[in-house]
Amino acid sequence: MPTALEVLLPLPLEPLTYLPPLARPLGPIGARVAVPWQGGVRIGLVVGHREVPAGRGLELREAVDWLDARPFLSAMAVDALKRIARYAAAPTGVVLAGLAPTGFHQALRWEVRAAQGAGLLAAGLSADEWTDAAAVNVELLELLRSQGLLDERVEAELRTVRVVVPRALADEALEGARRANQRAALEHLWSVEQADSAAALARDSDVPESAVRALIEKGYAEYAEVPAPAPALPRATSEAELPPEVAAEAVPPEGDGAIVGGLRRDRLAALLPRLQADLDAGGSVLVLVPEHAYLEETAAILAGLPLQILAGDADDEQRMRLFEELPDGGPVVLLGTYLALLAPLPGLARVVVLESASSSYKLQAGARLFVPAAAALLADAAGAALTLSEALAGPDLVARVSASDRRSLPLPRLRLHVADVNGAGNWPLHPDLITVLRQVEARERQAVLLAPRRGYSAALGCPDCGWMAGCPNCDLTLRYHRQDGTLRCHQCGYEQAPPALCPECGGTDLQPLRGAGTQWVASQVAKMLASFPVYRFDRDRRDDLSALLAGGPGVVVGTTAVLRLPRLPNIALVGVTLFDTHLGRADFRAEEEALRFLMQLAEFAPERRPLIVVQTYQPDHPVLEAVLADPPEASVEVAIGRLLERRRRFAYPPFTALAKLQLTARTQSVASNAAAALADELLRRGASTDEILGPAPAPVARVKGQYAFQLFLRVNAEDRRETLLDGLPARLGGARLHVDVDPRDVGALIE
DNA sequence: AACGAGAGACAA
DNA sequence: TGTCTCTCGTTC
Fold first, then answer.
1. pLDDT digits over A501-546, tens only?
2. Closest to A260 (Cα-Cα) out of A488, A513, A596, A509
3. Burial category of A366 from C-beta neighbours within 10 Å (exposed 0-12, middle 13-18, buried 19 and up)
4. Protein residue with the closest CA to the C1' atom of nucleotide B3
5. Could you identify which of A398, A461, A512, A618 might form a hypothetical disulfide with A457, taking C-beta atoms 3.0 to 4.6 angstroms apart as the criterion?
6. Distance A407 CA to B1 C1' (A)
């Protein structure tokens, strides 16, 4: 029986079967191969070999050519890829498209010629000369290939750059004093062989540019396209930082484990000896960060180790070079975002997930992966240890890592003041916050105010009849942006001018309603503190903060984008204008994430310990009480214990496995019927009625003109979830199905 | 994802 | 009847 290739394309498909390229060896799992696809060729990944019956071979098409002689992704990474796809209930190709940072979208040069002895002059193909395949009829190519009459080769197109190269030696025409400059430039060019540009050559040989131009005009030198030099690998740009001293007992264990508590850099310092031991033993380590903003500070502390970096800012050539060089290098620490998950590290011994509960790890596109879950599957496939790091030993971490495998540092001490906004005037700034802001102003220090959203207010409406401006495409209120005089939908981007009159009752008194955004807070601060510089920092507006970063006085009003700024050197106050948005988020993780948010504020300036003023309608909330205790460790542990107990009682993860299944369609009935049909399908697959919650309209019932219905699948084990979700169709009765495994916005599931 | 086939919607 | 748009099924 002939052996065929299972080829995975970066498309929403499972692997397809191709015969190996004609007259080529079989090639290893993990290598890339060019395959015929829709009249052209594209790059796929060999994820398996399979024996096919001889007769079946006639129906299959041949792959065109190999792009790699050795695996591009390790067999272990291929294995992890399949596991991750099954976990996420997504086509394997979607996971490849989402996680392979390079290698599958390169421009290709595809050439053909007649196979030896085929004699295809009639088809216009020579047996000696390669012909660009694009110039040959597609059906003809298919026919010739299937008959074994075609010889093909595919190579990644090399990037070239235009340079100046010498063409002729100086001769008598360049003699004489008036040609001295041209002669000097030409001699220099011969000695360096090529120059980046005419201007560069002029500069380097210390002659005017006109002299070089003359050389090119006279044919002594010319422009040429040459292969571009290998790009430099991405490097950390900030200075190496001496790691803080950390007790030896805080070093996480050799096997699976976690480091919790302290500040980010304390936890990193605790990790260092462990990483060094891995490297000494010949193993590599993958260190994952949730966001690009943490890369620099992490690299600064890991700077003493052999370190490579891979994140979204690397260009495709840098990524490719890194993928090519990693397997041949020694043990290394690869620091990166989710893009680094499948990197071919030699002897992967450990996967470290920093800030392992960060919601930024939930990818919004493609398979909607939760990266730490994917990292755990990768570690498993590689036989590597998994080490988690986060400030708070939250319910998920406590359930995954036993107490004996956890190492703890003390929690940061917050100077916290809770401002009860019930009945307090001066919305959106509590008098306490104003008082402190005035002190900050008087002492010429710095403050940060965190608002829950950008814009002026969450809505614009009529206080007489209760009407609020809504989006025509979505079931959402329009956000009011007073500064640019618009109402905007933050979901679909719809924009309109605010109406002059209430369209319901004709009232003339339309007002900003509900939550205050950055514009509102900033204008209020400016009104109360006339001479204090006010900066805004959110997606709409990023003021130049260089004066503040240099230590100047002022207040920054922003969204959580502010948390990713470099440290403000003179900060004395952090204000949270409405903590309730954190407490009231529609997810069963809302409270622990609110707690985590407070812990994150300690990162602002650990040595200065700025005062943190939290405005809230719930001043007695257990989350705040836990953090206010001194020392907080015991009370925080109790609070987490209560949250874990609540998850057990109401059958939430980690005690169950959850998936959100959403159906969207342009008409409401299509979406709702499809949701009902999906529930039936799950029952048919053996789910019980109490494992299916819903279907019901999604919390936002219509977004961008699409109606959404959803149901939750809640089962007792992950493998049961995988079985029930395996191979669901992407479309159901005219609606599109979106599967979100381990969703982060579960809403009011308990009721 | 990207293509082509087929079904409706609309104008002439 | 032609042309445009949208939906649906297929890709080894």
1. 998 898 888 988 878 889 999 999 999 998 899 999 999 899 999 9
2. A596
3. middle
4. A38
5. A512
6. 46
Q: CA nearest A701: which of A665, A728, A737?
A: A665
Q: How far apart are CA A560 and CA A573, in angstroms?
A: 16
CA–CA distance, A486 with A214 (Å, rounded to integer): 58
Cβ < 7 Å from strand C, A residues 52-91: 59-61
Query: Which residues 18-57 of chain A have a CB under 7 Å from nucleic chain B?
Result: 38-39
Structure tokens at A412: 């940061």
Residues A685, A50: Cα–Cα separation, whole Å: 29
d(CA A495, C1' B12) / Å: 38
How many angstroms is C1' of B11 away from CA of A38?
34
Which of A162-176, A395-409, A615-629 bottoms out in mean pLDDT, i.e. has the lowest? A162-176
CA of A727 to C1' of B10 (A): 40
Contacts for A144 with CB less than 8 Å, ≥ 6 apart: A118, A120, A123, A125, A150
In this structure, is the CB of residue A12 within 7 Å of any atom belonging to strand B?
yes
Other C-beta atoms lying within 10 Å of the C-beta of residue A588: 21
A636 burial level (CB within 10 Å; 0-12, 13-18, 19+):
buried
Checking each nucleotide's C1' against the CA of A37, the nearest proves to be: C11
- pLDDT(A414) > 80: yes
**CB neighbours of A94 closer than 8 A, spacing ≥ 6?**
A11, A12, A85, A366, A367
Distance in angstroms, CA of A58 to C1' of C12? 11
Q: pLDDT tens digits, residue range A35-57?
A: 999 889 999 999 999 998 887 66
Do residues A259 and A267 make contact, with C-beta atoms less than 8 angstroms apart?
yes
